[in-house]
Sequence to fold (519 residues):
Amino acid sequence: MSPTATHAVPSVYRAALPDEVRVAIVGSGFSGLGMAKGLLDDGERDFVVLERADDIGGTWRDNSYPGCACDVPSHMYSFSWAQNPNWTRAFAGQEEIWAYQRDVAARFGINPYVRTGAGVTDATWDDDEQRWTLTTDRGVVRARFLVSGTGPLCEPKYPDLPGLDRFEGTTFHSARWDHDHDLSGKRVAVIGTGASAIQFVPRIQPKVASLTLFQRTPPWIMPRPDRPIGRLEGLAYRRLPLAKELRRARLYAELESRVLPFAYVPQLRGPAKQLALRHLRKQVKDPALRAKLTPDYDLGCKRVLLSNDYLPSLDADNAEVVTAGIREVRERSIVDADGVEHEVDTIIFGTGFHVTDQPIADAITGREGHTLAETWQRTGMQAHRGCTIAGFPNVFMLVGPNTGLGHNSIIYMIEAQVTYVREALKAAAERGAASLEVRPDVQTAENDAIQARLRKTVWNDGGCESWYLDENGRNTTLWPDFTFVFRERTKRFRPEEHVMRDAGESHVAAGGVREAVPA
Ligand code: NAP
Fold:
């Protein structure tokens, strides 16, 4: 749990694990909570939410670094079925979002289904029994269906720096912030300039003796239109549900309109670039520093960041931006590629997450005895509707391949996928099917279309390297279009796109020919 936490954790989280359930959900972040609520709405009670940590919340529990906040407006960054009239700011901070998640879990009756300390280390498909055997830190659970809600921002990524093991000072990742380590008066190196670093750098800069920021690529930074939500406005959201709905609808339309410059009309990026460059000119007086902080790729290629205090914090006397790259780490210093030695006491990694090589993929072994990681090594990370995967019956991935967003709230996508899973489970139940598996040809066709669609978007064509792209340069992370298009596609589960089997029925017919059971 975050060391900043002060709340009581429900004791039911430590209750015994069930031996067997219909649905096992892995992870209790927004995906896991949304899935649990969807199952409860369908009258499903035979499920469990397996959480590796000792509390719920996922990335919003783990990321407790100073300044951690959402860069999607709060009224959009929440479940449509649990809109919060009490947000205190236009962009809520981590503690408030985490409290919102706990409130949702309590209010909607999800808590009794959560089991903590139950990290899933292995999930293997039993083709005879047509169910999953999950090995967790607290024992074995068997499940007919497996929903992975572990998400792409689950496992911190540490850079492989020569000499790092020699370093005698303190090191930690932004997603595992060491709150016991007092940064006051320390010489601090920060590696990375992504969405996390730009939030914590301005918070730590005033208190450290020196801040050395190792920047590989400067992000595009826009003004952050944050503000407290005043008493009257808050009252309106509490008393007039329509006011809340209207705010959300307006935010949705605003955020959604960004698909136009990013994916359809590149010329529309011009004004946004001008705004970002004006922001930089206003906030950084030193022309040499400004040059270092000016991106040389198209706006949107990497996530566009929002901040009013990051750039000024780099213009401070105790801050230095190093763009030369890192040659090696020594006992008390970092030597950059120009040979300059920077003395440091602490190194903070703002180096992101294992997005295109998610660890859960190593833990899941499918019908043919291969892990999901091995399968994706061959094909690239892919799924159907970002959710079901050929060779992996009864698995659903939430925020799976190509469902991430560079422009709107991921919770909207999670809700769409939850609908899809619910429809799939209903279809299986109606047909008395024990398992369902997407047809490989259906999966391939959809992924070819997604990749073709991505080709001309800024996310692929914007002249940058980003974590949206895998080691082969394929964008396996982002949804390339409007989110309402995704919602439309996930509204209905199409049995004809899947192979469904009754219990005991062999999946592959004689001769290795796959047969789709007619709907
Ligand atoms: P990130 O966006 O992946 O940024 C990682 C940073 O580390 C980049 O600047 C990267 O440089 C740099 N880096 C990585 N390896 C490096 C190395 N070996 N040497 C030097 N630099 C290195 O990670 P993040 O900032 O933690 O954010 C991850 C995602 O979390 C975000 O994009 C966003 O989706 C989410 N997030 C959201 C919010 C929010 O408000 N909703 C807040 C924080 C994070 P390059 O750019 O050159 O690769």
Notes: The pocket of NAP is lined by residues 69-72, 153, 159, 174, 191-197, 214, 216-217, 303, 350-353, 467 (CB under 6 Å). The first strand starts at residue 20 and ends at 26.
